[in-house]
Design goal:
Residues 20-125, 132-229 form the Ig-like domain. The chain has 302 residues and is mainly beta. Helices cover 14% and strands 35% of the residues.
Length: 302
Protein backbone atom coordinates (compact mmCIF):
# COMPACT_ATOMS: atom_id res chain seq x y z
CA UNK A 1 0.00 0.00 0.00
CA UNK A 2 1.44 3.37 -1.06
CA UNK A 3 2.07 6.11 1.55
CA UNK A 4 0.15 9.34 1.37
CA UNK A 5 2.31 12.41 0.77
CA UNK A 6 1.71 13.61 4.38
CA UNK A 7 2.81 10.33 6.00
CA UNK A 8 5.85 10.13 3.75
CA UNK A 9 6.83 13.66 4.70
CA UNK A 10 6.50 12.92 8.43
CA UNK A 11 8.57 9.74 8.22
CA UNK A 12 11.27 11.54 6.23
CA UNK A 13 11.36 14.42 8.70
CA UNK A 14 11.72 12.06 11.67
CA UNK A 15 14.49 10.08 9.99
CA UNK A 16 16.37 13.31 9.24
CA UNK A 17 15.88 14.58 12.80
CA UNK A 18 13.99 17.67 11.62
CA UNK A 19 11.11 17.07 14.00
CA UNK A 20 11.07 15.03 17.24
CA UNK A 21 9.42 11.64 17.22
CA UNK A 22 6.22 11.28 19.21
CA UNK A 23 5.41 7.77 17.99
CA UNK A 24 6.87 6.06 21.07
CA UNK A 25 9.95 5.00 22.99
CA UNK A 26 12.67 3.25 20.94
CA UNK A 27 15.72 1.46 22.43
CA UNK A 28 18.92 0.18 20.92
CA UNK A 29 22.24 -1.24 22.19
CA UNK A 30 25.84 -1.15 21.07
CA UNK A 31 26.25 -4.95 21.40
CA UNK A 32 23.64 -7.63 21.89
CA UNK A 33 26.35 -10.20 22.66
CA UNK A 34 28.92 -9.00 25.19
CA UNK A 35 32.06 -10.76 26.42
CA UNK A 36 33.87 -9.77 29.61
CA UNK A 37 36.84 -11.12 31.55
CA UNK A 38 36.23 -12.19 35.13
CA UNK A 39 36.94 -9.47 37.74
CA UNK A 40 37.04 -6.74 35.08
CA UNK A 41 34.38 -3.99 34.53
CA UNK A 42 31.84 -4.13 31.71
CA UNK A 43 29.06 -1.82 30.60
CA UNK A 44 25.75 -3.03 29.14
CA UNK A 45 24.32 -0.32 26.89
CA UNK A 46 20.63 0.53 26.70
CA UNK A 47 20.32 3.64 24.54
CA UNK A 48 17.02 5.53 24.25
CA UNK A 49 16.76 6.75 20.68
CA UNK A 50 13.41 8.50 21.00
CA UNK A 51 11.06 9.29 23.87
CA UNK A 52 8.60 12.02 24.87
CA UNK A 53 8.09 11.11 28.54
CA UNK A 54 10.29 13.10 30.89
CA UNK A 55 10.68 10.49 33.62
CA UNK A 56 10.35 7.04 32.09
CA UNK A 57 10.41 3.93 34.26
CA UNK A 58 13.64 2.02 33.71
CA UNK A 59 14.15 -1.56 34.84
CA UNK A 60 16.82 -4.22 34.28
CA UNK A 61 16.21 -7.95 34.69
CA UNK A 62 18.67 -10.83 34.75
CA UNK A 63 17.44 -14.03 33.08
CA UNK A 64 19.32 -17.20 33.98
CA UNK A 65 18.07 -20.69 33.22
CA UNK A 66 14.82 -19.10 32.08
CA UNK A 67 14.15 -17.46 35.47
CA UNK A 68 14.06 -13.60 35.61
CA UNK A 69 15.17 -11.55 38.61
CA UNK A 70 15.58 -7.79 39.16
CA UNK A 71 19.01 -6.16 39.01
CA UNK A 72 17.67 -2.57 38.74
CA UNK A 73 14.25 -1.82 40.21
CA UNK A 74 12.63 1.31 41.70
CA UNK A 75 15.66 3.44 40.95
CA UNK A 76 18.26 1.25 42.70
CA UNK A 77 20.52 -1.71 42.02
CA UNK A 78 19.22 -4.97 43.43
CA UNK A 79 19.79 -8.71 43.38
CA UNK A 80 23.10 -10.17 42.24
CA UNK A 81 24.54 -6.79 41.24
CA UNK A 82 23.83 -4.97 44.50
CA UNK A 83 26.95 -3.03 45.60
CA UNK A 84 28.66 -4.12 42.35
CA UNK A 85 27.02 -1.94 39.71
CA UNK A 86 25.42 1.40 38.97
CA UNK A 87 23.00 2.91 36.45
CA UNK A 88 24.60 5.33 34.01
CA UNK A 89 22.50 7.83 32.08
CA UNK A 90 20.35 7.29 30.28
CA UNK A 91 19.84 3.60 31.04
CA UNK A 92 23.17 1.78 30.86
CA UNK A 93 24.33 -0.69 33.54
CA UNK A 94 28.00 -0.61 34.57
CA UNK A 95 29.24 -3.72 36.41
CA UNK A 96 32.38 -2.96 38.41
CA UNK A 97 33.82 -6.47 38.66
CA UNK A 98 32.18 -9.26 36.74
CA UNK A 99 32.14 -12.81 38.06
CA UNK A 100 31.36 -16.12 36.38
CA UNK A 101 27.93 -16.06 38.02
CA UNK A 102 27.09 -12.93 35.99
CA UNK A 103 26.95 -14.96 32.77
CA UNK A 104 23.29 -14.63 31.73
CA UNK A 105 20.87 -12.63 29.58
CA UNK A 106 19.97 -9.11 30.68
CA UNK A 107 16.82 -7.28 29.60
CA UNK A 108 16.50 -3.50 29.62
CA UNK A 109 12.88 -2.32 29.87
CA UNK A 110 11.69 1.28 29.49
CA UNK A 111 8.08 2.40 30.06
CA UNK A 112 7.02 5.90 28.85
CA UNK A 113 3.40 6.76 29.73
CA UNK A 114 3.32 9.93 27.63
CA UNK A 115 4.37 8.20 24.41
CA UNK A 116 2.08 6.57 21.91
CA UNK A 117 4.27 3.49 22.03
CA UNK A 118 4.77 3.49 25.77
CA UNK A 119 7.07 0.45 26.21
CA UNK A 120 10.19 -1.03 24.65
CA UNK A 121 12.76 -3.58 25.70
CA UNK A 122 16.07 -4.94 24.49
CA UNK A 123 17.88 -8.19 25.34
CA UNK A 124 21.64 -8.43 25.87
CA UNK A 125 23.64 -11.63 26.34
CA UNK A 126 26.63 -11.40 28.69
CA UNK A 127 29.30 -14.13 28.80
CA UNK A 128 32.09 -13.86 31.36
CA UNK A 129 35.41 -15.41 30.41
CA UNK A 130 37.18 -17.27 33.24
CA UNK A 131 40.94 -17.78 33.28
CA UNK A 132 42.05 -21.43 33.51
CA UNK A 133 43.42 -22.74 36.80
CA UNK A 134 46.62 -24.80 37.03
CA UNK A 135 45.85 -28.00 35.13
CA UNK A 136 46.29 -31.48 36.59
CA UNK A 137 49.11 -33.16 34.68
CA UNK A 138 50.03 -36.85 34.61
CA UNK A 139 53.46 -37.81 33.24
CA UNK A 140 54.84 -41.38 33.64
CA UNK A 141 58.10 -41.47 35.57
CA UNK A 142 59.69 -44.21 33.47
CA UNK A 143 58.85 -46.03 30.22
CA UNK A 144 60.65 -48.55 28.02
CA UNK A 145 61.85 -47.88 24.49
CA UNK A 146 59.35 -49.10 21.91
CA UNK A 147 56.35 -49.17 24.25
CA UNK A 148 53.29 -46.89 24.15
CA UNK A 149 52.35 -44.35 26.80
CA UNK A 150 50.10 -41.32 27.33
CA UNK A 151 50.55 -38.00 29.11
CA UNK A 152 47.36 -36.32 30.40
CA UNK A 153 46.40 -32.71 31.16
CA UNK A 154 43.04 -31.36 32.38
CA UNK A 155 41.41 -28.38 34.11
CA UNK A 156 37.67 -27.69 34.55
CA UNK A 157 37.44 -24.04 35.66
CA UNK A 158 38.23 -22.05 32.51
CA UNK A 159 35.48 -20.58 30.32
CA UNK A 160 35.35 -20.96 27.38
CA UNK A 161 36.84 -24.44 27.57
CA UNK A 162 40.63 -24.47 27.55
CA UNK A 163 42.86 -25.54 24.69
CA UNK A 164 45.97 -27.50 25.68
CA UNK A 165 49.60 -27.34 24.58
CA UNK A 166 52.53 -29.54 25.61
CA UNK A 167 56.17 -28.53 26.10
CA UNK A 168 59.22 -30.82 26.03
CA UNK A 169 62.36 -29.42 27.66
CA UNK A 170 60.75 -25.93 27.50
CA UNK A 171 60.11 -26.24 23.74
CA UNK A 172 56.51 -26.31 22.49
CA UNK A 173 55.57 -29.51 20.71
CA UNK A 174 53.80 -28.93 17.37
CA UNK A 175 50.31 -30.38 17.19
CA UNK A 176 51.26 -32.39 14.08
CA UNK A 177 54.92 -33.57 14.24
CA UNK A 178 54.92 -34.63 10.58
CA UNK A 179 54.81 -30.98 9.49
CA UNK A 180 58.05 -30.10 11.31
CA UNK A 181 61.44 -31.52 10.23
CA UNK A 182 62.74 -31.65 13.82
CA UNK A 183 59.87 -33.87 14.99
CA UNK A 184 59.20 -35.84 11.81
CA UNK A 185 60.42 -39.10 13.41
CA UNK A 186 58.27 -38.64 16.52
CA UNK A 187 55.36 -41.01 17.02
CA UNK A 188 53.18 -38.86 19.29
CA UNK A 189 49.71 -37.47 18.62
CA UNK A 190 48.24 -34.51 20.50
CA UNK A 191 44.59 -33.63 21.21
CA UNK A 192 44.32 -29.90 22.06
CA UNK A 193 40.71 -30.30 23.23
CA UNK A 194 41.28 -33.10 25.78
CA UNK A 195 44.93 -32.46 26.68
CA UNK A 196 46.11 -35.96 25.78
CA UNK A 197 49.63 -36.58 24.43
CA UNK A 198 50.00 -40.18 23.21
CA UNK A 199 53.25 -41.87 22.14
CA UNK A 200 52.76 -44.88 19.88
CA UNK A 201 56.40 -46.00 20.28
CA UNK A 202 58.61 -44.19 22.77
CA UNK A 203 62.16 -43.25 21.64
CA UNK A 204 65.21 -42.44 23.74
CA UNK A 205 64.90 -38.85 22.47
CA UNK A 206 61.50 -38.56 24.14
CA UNK A 207 63.05 -38.55 27.61
CA UNK A 208 63.11 -35.23 29.47
CA UNK A 209 60.88 -32.69 31.20
CA UNK A 210 57.26 -32.19 30.18
CA UNK A 211 54.65 -29.64 31.20
CA UNK A 212 51.22 -28.69 29.86
CA UNK A 213 49.60 -25.28 29.37
CA UNK A 214 45.84 -24.63 29.42
CA UNK A 215 44.77 -21.47 27.57
CA UNK A 216 41.62 -19.56 26.60
CA UNK A 217 40.71 -15.94 25.79
CA UNK A 218 40.92 -14.93 29.47
CA UNK A 219 44.47 -16.19 30.08
CA UNK A 220 46.53 -19.31 30.63
CA UNK A 221 47.99 -21.52 33.37
CA UNK A 222 50.48 -24.38 33.36
CA UNK A 223 51.50 -27.27 35.58
CA UNK A 224 55.04 -27.70 36.99
CA UNK A 225 57.51 -29.68 34.82
CA UNK A 226 57.68 -33.43 35.37
CA UNK A 227 60.48 -35.74 34.22
CA UNK A 228 59.92 -38.85 32.08
CA UNK A 229 62.83 -41.30 31.86
CA UNK A 230 63.19 -43.78 28.99
CA UNK A 231 64.98 -47.10 29.55
CA UNK A 232 66.32 -49.68 27.12
CA UNK A 233 65.45 -52.55 29.48
CA UNK A 234 62.36 -53.01 31.55
CA UNK A 235 64.07 -52.88 34.94
CA UNK A 236 60.82 -52.82 36.82
CA UNK A 237 59.53 -55.85 34.93
CA UNK A 238 62.66 -57.85 35.67
CA UNK A 239 62.52 -56.94 39.35
CA UNK A 240 58.90 -58.04 39.59
CA UNK A 241 59.67 -61.35 37.83
CA UNK A 242 62.58 -62.08 40.19
CA UNK A 243 60.43 -61.21 43.18
CA UNK A 244 57.70 -63.54 41.93
CA UNK A 245 60.21 -66.37 41.42
CA UNK A 246 61.60 -65.97 44.95
CA UNK A 247 58.10 -65.96 46.41
CA UNK A 248 57.20 -69.12 44.47
CA UNK A 249 60.35 -70.85 45.73
CA UNK A 250 59.52 -70.01 49.32
CA UNK A 251 56.01 -71.39 48.92
CA UNK A 252 57.31 -74.67 47.44
CA UNK A 253 59.90 -75.02 50.22
CA UNK A 254 57.32 -74.53 52.95
CA UNK A 255 54.95 -77.06 51.34
CA UNK A 256 57.70 -79.71 51.04
CA UNK A 257 58.73 -79.17 54.64
CA UNK A 258 55.18 -79.67 55.88
CA UNK A 259 54.74 -82.84 53.79
CA UNK A 260 58.00 -84.36 55.04
CA UNK A 261 57.14 -83.52 58.60
CA UNK A 262 53.82 -85.35 58.39
CA UNK A 263 55.26 -88.46 56.64
CA UNK A 264 58.44 -88.88 58.68
CA UNK A 265 56.95 -88.22 62.14
CA UNK A 266 53.49 -89.86 62.29
CA UNK A 267 51.37 -89.32 65.30
CA UNK A 268 51.34 -91.97 68.00
CA UNK A 269 48.16 -94.04 68.01
CA UNK A 270 46.74 -97.47 68.94
CA UNK A 271 47.38 -100.35 66.50
CA UNK A 272 47.85 -104.09 66.58
CA UNK A 273 51.51 -103.84 67.63
CA UNK A 274 50.90 -101.43 70.45
CA UNK A 275 49.79 -103.17 73.59
CA UNK A 276 50.94 -103.39 77.17
CA UNK A 277 52.67 -106.51 78.44
CA UNK A 278 51.22 -107.79 81.69
CA UNK A 279 53.35 -107.04 84.70
CA UNK A 280 55.43 -109.99 85.94
CA UNK A 281 54.46 -111.37 89.35
CA UNK A 282 56.88 -112.78 91.90
CA UNK A 283 56.58 -116.32 93.22
CA UNK A 284 56.93 -114.96 96.69
CA UNK A 285 54.71 -112.51 98.46
CA UNK A 286 55.77 -110.66 101.51
CA UNK A 287 53.44 -109.87 104.28
CA UNK A 288 53.40 -106.74 106.28
CA UNK A 289 56.37 -105.79 108.35
CA UNK A 290 54.48 -106.16 111.56
CA UNK A 291 54.09 -109.95 111.05
CA UNK A 292 57.84 -110.45 111.41
CA UNK A 293 58.15 -113.37 108.98
CA UNK A 294 57.32 -114.37 105.47
CA UNK A 295 54.87 -116.98 104.29
CA UNK A 296 55.29 -119.52 101.53
CA UNK A 297 52.32 -118.98 99.20
CA UNK A 298 52.97 -121.32 96.38
CA UNK A 299 54.46 -124.77 96.06
CA UNK A 300 57.04 -125.98 93.68
CA UNK A 301 56.07 -128.43 91.07
CA UNK A 302 58.69 -131.09 90.46
Amino acid sequence: MAMTPLVACVVLSISLGLIPSSLGVILRTMDKIVWANEFEPIELTCLIESISTNNPRIEWKKIKNGVPSYVYFQNKIAGDLEQRAQLKEPANILIFNTTRSDTAEYRCEVAAIDDQRDFDEILISLAVRVKPVVPRCSVPEAVTVGTSTELRCLENEGFPASQYRWFHNSEELPQDPKNHPKFINSTYSMNPDTGGLKFRRVRKEDAGEYYCQAKNEAGHAQCPPQTMEVYDVDILGIFLKVLAAVASGLVVTVCMYQCCKRLCFPKKGHNENNYNWPAQTSAFDYVDDDEGHFRHKSSFVI
